[in-house]
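Q: Here's a chain of 199 amino acids. Please give me its 3D structure as C-alpha coordinates.
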Amino acid sequence: MSELELVPSPTPAERPPSLFGRLFKPYDIGFYLMVILAWISSVYTSYDLNNSRFIWRWLIPIFGAICIYTQWNSVPPTLQDRLRLVLHQILHWGVMTALAFLLIMSSTGQYGFVNIFDSRQVGFVISLMLAFSTYLAGLYHDWRLCVVAAFILAGAIINVAFSNLAPLLLWIGLGILVFYLLGAWLFSAWQQREPPAAS
Protein backbone atom coordinates (compact mmCIF):
# COMPACT_ATOMS: atom_id res chain seq x y z
CA MET A 1 0.00 0.00 0.00
CA SER A 2 1.56 3.24 -1.12
CA GLU A 3 1.22 6.39 0.87
CA LEU A 4 -0.47 9.32 -0.71
CA GLU A 5 2.01 12.15 -1.05
CA LEU A 6 0.83 15.70 -0.93
CA VAL A 7 2.48 17.69 -3.68
CA PRO A 8 2.09 21.45 -3.42
CA SER A 9 0.47 22.99 -6.45
CA PRO A 10 2.85 25.09 -8.48
CA THR A 11 2.52 28.79 -7.90
CA PRO A 12 2.29 31.02 -10.95
CA ALA A 13 5.47 32.88 -11.74
CA GLU A 14 5.44 36.47 -10.61
CA ARG A 15 5.36 38.99 -13.40
CA PRO A 16 8.37 41.29 -13.42
CA PRO A 17 7.49 44.90 -12.69
CA SER A 18 6.95 47.20 -15.65
CA LEU A 19 9.53 49.70 -16.80
CA PHE A 20 7.49 52.48 -15.20
CA GLY A 21 7.35 50.55 -11.94
CA ARG A 22 11.10 49.96 -11.98
CA LEU A 23 12.03 53.58 -12.70
CA PHE A 24 9.46 55.32 -10.49
CA LYS A 25 9.58 53.41 -7.24
CA PRO A 26 8.45 55.37 -4.17
CA TYR A 27 12.05 55.48 -2.99
CA ASP A 28 13.12 57.26 -6.18
CA ILE A 29 10.39 59.90 -6.30
CA GLY A 30 12.21 62.12 -3.81
CA PHE A 31 15.32 62.15 -6.01
CA TYR A 32 13.31 63.15 -9.09
CA LEU A 33 11.51 65.84 -7.12
CA MET A 34 14.79 67.36 -5.93
CA VAL A 35 16.14 67.52 -9.48
CA ILE A 36 12.91 69.12 -10.76
CA LEU A 37 12.78 71.68 -7.94
CA ALA A 38 16.44 72.56 -8.42
CA TRP A 39 15.88 72.95 -12.17
CA ILE A 40 12.80 75.18 -11.70
CA SER A 41 14.61 77.33 -9.14
CA SER A 42 17.67 77.73 -11.35
CA VAL A 43 15.61 78.72 -14.38
CA TYR A 44 13.54 81.15 -12.30
CA THR A 45 16.76 82.72 -11.00
CA SER A 46 17.74 83.43 -14.61
CA TYR A 47 14.50 85.33 -15.20
CA ASP A 48 13.95 87.09 -11.88
CA LEU A 49 17.11 87.62 -9.86
CA ASN A 50 15.42 89.96 -7.39
CA ASN A 51 12.92 87.39 -6.10
CA SER A 52 14.96 84.22 -6.60
CA ARG A 53 16.52 84.47 -3.14
CA PHE A 54 13.14 83.67 -1.54
CA ILE A 55 12.78 80.53 -3.64
CA TRP A 56 16.18 79.24 -2.51
CA ARG A 57 15.34 80.05 1.11
CA TRP A 58 12.23 77.83 1.04
CA LEU A 59 13.84 75.16 -1.11
CA ILE A 60 16.31 74.27 1.64
CA PRO A 61 13.67 73.01 4.16
CA ILE A 62 11.92 71.15 1.33
CA PHE A 63 15.18 69.33 0.55
CA GLY A 64 15.47 68.45 4.24
CA ALA A 65 11.95 66.98 4.27
CA ILE A 66 12.69 64.97 1.13
CA CYS A 67 15.86 63.58 2.73
CA ILE A 68 13.87 62.48 5.77
CA TYR A 69 11.31 60.79 3.51
CA THR A 70 13.86 58.95 1.37
CA GLN A 71 15.91 57.77 4.36
CA TRP A 72 13.00 56.83 6.63
CA ASN A 73 13.08 53.12 5.73
CA SER A 74 16.89 52.91 5.60
CA VAL A 75 17.26 53.23 9.39
CA PRO A 76 16.23 50.59 11.93
CA PRO A 77 12.47 50.88 12.63
CA THR A 78 12.86 52.04 16.20
CA LEU A 79 11.68 55.31 17.67
CA GLN A 80 15.18 56.26 18.80
CA ASP A 81 16.78 55.71 15.38
CA ARG A 82 14.07 57.55 13.50
CA LEU A 83 14.12 60.47 15.94
CA ARG A 84 17.88 60.60 15.47
CA LEU A 85 17.37 60.71 11.71
CA VAL A 86 14.87 63.57 11.96
CA LEU A 87 17.07 65.50 14.41
CA HIS A 88 20.13 65.03 12.22
CA GLN A 89 18.33 66.34 9.14
CA ILE A 90 16.83 69.29 11.05
CA LEU A 91 20.28 70.29 12.28
CA HIS A 92 21.85 69.79 8.85
CA TRP A 93 19.30 71.75 6.83
CA GLY A 94 18.32 74.12 9.65
CA VAL A 95 21.79 75.65 9.72
CA MET A 96 21.59 76.22 5.97
CA THR A 97 18.18 77.86 6.33
CA ALA A 98 19.50 80.17 9.07
CA LEU A 99 22.45 81.16 6.89
CA ALA A 100 20.09 81.86 3.99
CA PHE A 101 18.01 84.15 6.22
CA LEU A 102 21.17 86.02 7.28
CA LEU A 103 22.20 86.49 3.66
CA ILE A 104 18.77 87.74 2.67
CA MET A 105 18.64 90.18 5.57
CA SER A 106 22.09 91.46 4.68
CA SER A 107 20.85 92.24 1.18
CA THR A 108 17.56 93.88 2.17
CA GLY A 109 18.70 95.92 5.18
CA GLN A 110 16.14 94.31 7.52
CA TYR A 111 16.56 94.25 11.30
CA GLY A 112 19.40 96.77 11.24
CA PHE A 113 21.57 94.84 8.81
CA VAL A 114 23.67 96.83 6.35
CA ASN A 115 23.15 96.16 2.63
CA ILE A 116 26.37 94.39 1.67
CA PHE A 117 25.02 92.02 -1.02
CA ASP A 118 22.80 92.50 -4.02
CA SER A 119 20.09 90.06 -5.09
CA ARG A 120 22.25 88.36 -7.70
CA GLN A 121 25.04 87.69 -5.21
CA VAL A 122 22.59 86.35 -2.63
CA GLY A 123 20.99 83.96 -5.13
CA PHE A 124 24.42 82.69 -6.16
CA VAL A 125 25.72 82.19 -2.61
CA ILE A 126 22.52 80.46 -1.44
CA SER A 127 22.62 78.13 -4.43
CA LEU A 128 26.27 77.29 -3.63
CA MET A 129 25.34 76.53 -0.02
CA LEU A 130 22.46 74.35 -1.14
CA ALA A 131 24.73 72.47 -3.55
CA PHE A 132 27.30 71.91 -0.79
CA SER A 133 24.67 70.70 1.71
CA THR A 134 23.12 68.37 -0.85
CA TYR A 135 26.56 67.01 -1.74
CA LEU A 136 27.30 66.25 1.93
CA ALA A 137 23.93 64.54 2.29
CA GLY A 138 24.80 62.46 -0.76
CA LEU A 139 28.15 61.42 0.68
CA TYR A 140 26.55 60.14 3.88
CA HIS A 141 23.24 58.76 2.63
CA ASP A 142 22.55 58.44 -1.11
CA TRP A 143 24.98 59.04 -3.99
CA ARG A 144 22.16 60.36 -6.18
CA LEU A 145 22.03 63.49 -4.04
CA CYS A 146 25.51 64.25 -5.37
CA VAL A 147 23.94 64.35 -8.85
CA VAL A 148 21.41 66.90 -7.58
CA ALA A 149 24.25 68.92 -6.04
CA ALA A 150 26.16 68.90 -9.34
CA PHE A 151 23.07 70.16 -11.14
CA ILE A 152 22.51 72.96 -8.62
CA LEU A 153 26.15 74.00 -8.95
CA ALA A 154 25.96 73.97 -12.75
CA GLY A 155 22.80 76.07 -12.59
CA ALA A 156 24.45 78.61 -10.30
CA ILE A 157 27.48 78.96 -12.55
CA ILE A 158 25.34 79.32 -15.67
CA ASN A 159 23.16 81.95 -13.99
CA VAL A 160 26.20 84.02 -13.08
CA ALA A 161 28.31 83.56 -16.20
CA PHE A 162 25.53 83.31 -18.78
CA SER A 163 22.40 84.84 -17.29
CA ASN A 164 20.67 84.85 -20.68
CA LEU A 165 21.22 81.14 -21.31
CA ALA A 166 18.34 79.64 -19.36
CA PRO A 167 17.52 77.32 -22.31
CA LEU A 168 20.98 75.80 -21.85
CA LEU A 169 20.07 75.02 -18.25
CA LEU A 170 16.85 73.43 -19.48
CA TRP A 171 18.76 71.08 -21.79
CA ILE A 172 21.27 70.22 -19.08
CA GLY A 173 18.44 69.30 -16.70
CA LEU A 174 16.66 67.20 -19.29
CA GLY A 175 19.96 65.54 -20.21
CA ILE A 176 20.64 64.58 -16.59
CA LEU A 177 17.15 63.08 -16.22
CA VAL A 178 17.38 61.14 -19.50
CA PHE A 179 20.87 59.88 -18.62
CA TYR A 180 19.73 58.72 -15.19
CA LEU A 181 16.53 57.06 -16.47
CA LEU A 182 18.46 55.25 -19.21
CA GLY A 183 21.07 54.07 -16.73
CA ALA A 184 18.40 52.93 -14.26
CA TRP A 185 16.56 51.08 -17.01
CA LEU A 186 19.71 49.31 -18.23
CA PHE A 187 20.70 48.37 -14.68
CA SER A 188 17.19 47.09 -13.95
CA ALA A 189 17.14 45.06 -17.18
CA TRP A 190 20.54 43.59 -16.28
CA GLN A 191 19.24 42.56 -12.85
CA GLN A 192 16.12 40.95 -14.37
CA ARG A 193 18.12 38.66 -16.64
CA GLU A 194 18.11 35.07 -15.51
CA PRO A 195 21.51 33.41 -15.14
CA PRO A 196 22.25 30.86 -17.90
CA ALA A 197 21.41 27.30 -16.99
CA ALA A 198 24.41 25.23 -15.95
CA SER A 199 25.24 22.52 -18.49
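Q: Can you summarize the key feature?
A: Helices lie at 19-23, 26-47, 49-71, 79-108, 119-140, 144-161, 166-192.
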